[in-house]
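Feature request, filed as a ticket because there's no other form

It would be nice if the structure record came with a short human-readable summary line next to the tokens. Right now we just get the raw output. Example of a typical job, pasted below so the devs can see what we mean:
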Amino acid sequence: MAAIGSFLPLFLIRQHAGAGGLLAGVDVTVVQTAWGTSYQFPGQEATDAAGSPMGIPLLVAVVLLTVVAFVAATRPERALARTLTVAGAAFTAGAVATVAMSGFGWSAMREAVELDISIASGLWLLTVATLVAVAAAVMAHLSLRKADGNADGTAGWADPAVAFADTPTPPSGVAITVLPPDDEHP
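Raw output as currently delivered:
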């Protein structure tokens, strides 16, 4: 999702050029992606403007999350998978936050220039990719529950064989045997 979102439009900015000048009464559309900005004037082809490629950190985040997925699939119970998942989620969140800050730069000019700014599908896709990465990091740290009992692999109740074994008398003088409830036995 993050790789696709970096190539889709992040922001659509429409500026209405005021009276006077060569572009009087014309709407100029600015399309910003993570790789550059494109200016579209009515009746003309789009003009691309060079800028800092914010897509590079996004692609680094995609590579890191791909490595995380491979490590987690091959070694799911290892601390390395959990650590890499948190690192991948944090890096993705930082890269997407950096990209989203460019929208605040456009918003700062809103009052000086007549602008309509809308968030495009690319930024929404990057936001969803970040939420999925954070959810994966949270799930990586949840303890894995065994199907037959607790997280440590022990059964939910004491083993009957151990309960009936001859045990030494405790300091209180009374040995208490705890048996599982009758409804769990066939």
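Something like this underneath would help us a lot:
The radius of gyration is 29 Å.
Residues 2-141 form a domain with the Butyryl-CoA Dehydrogenase, subunit A; domain 3 fold (CATH 1.20.140).
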